[in-house]
Fold this protein.
Amino acid sequence: MKIARIDQYFPRPRMRLVKITTDDGIVGWGESTLEGKPRSTMAAVDEMADYLVGKDPLRIEHHWQHIYRSAFFRGGAIAMSALS
């Protein structure tokens, strides 16, 4: 099983939902919202999606650590909001 796609949805202002879909059709949802920085968080999710697509979705801790340690703003609000 691999992550097939990551999509972002904007159901209302200041709210961003992230949908992760596997090649088996399993879907997971998350929220990635940071007040006052909507475009920055959107770009961060896109950057993380470049890494995650094609990867095993069950290796959560591995991917979290890789993204956290390689993020330019390591531990910053934008990266952490996108990663959450």
